[in-house]
Amino acid sequence: MFGFSLNGVNYYYIRNNQNDIIGILDSNGNQVVSYVYDSWGKLVSTSGSLAETVGVQNPFRYHGYYYDVETGFYYLQSRYYDPVTGRFINSDSLIGSTGELNTHNMFAYCGNEPINRLDPYGFAWYYPFNRYSDTGLEMGPVYIKTSDLISSPSKVVVIFEKILFDHSSVSIFDTFVLVQ
Question: Where along the chain do its domains lie?
Answer without folding.
Answer: 3-64, 75-165
